[in-house]
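pinned: reference chain
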Amino acid sequence: MSPHKTSADGNKSESQKSDDTLTFAIGDIHGRYQALKALVENCKSYAGGRDMRFVFLGDYVDRGSETPAVLEFLIDFSQRMAGRIICLRGNHEACLLAAAMGDFKRVGFDATMEDWLGAGGGGSATLISYGVDHASDVPIRHLEWLRSLR
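pinned: its structure tokens
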């Protein structure tokens, strides 16, 4: 006798159905909205109607010129696909939040404001993409969302 329970019609119970959900892991977006949008569309096309979940691995900001659009997309996408989206906070988000608070000691690694604003950090591209001079001027909606991430 099988250890699996079946219903009267011979179908497996809900708890025994295999999880056919596709999981897509996406990282290192770095302010490139058009690339993110195209990648998500490619994932949807690949899924062909199957259930999907997405894990975004952080580094949404810095370097690219479309950081505000990236964050708006992720906030909206997370709400539309509630329970099927995980967004993690990367080191670049930690730097942006630290810069907004004026306290790089909280970042947890050896980074300075100069490091973040420099070519390697990409913070200057983020500020330019928002049209602001200081990280504290980034829209509160975006800062609060970034703070909410794990």
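why pinned: Confidence is low (pLDDT under 50) at residues 1-17. Strands lie at 22-26, 52-56, 85-87.
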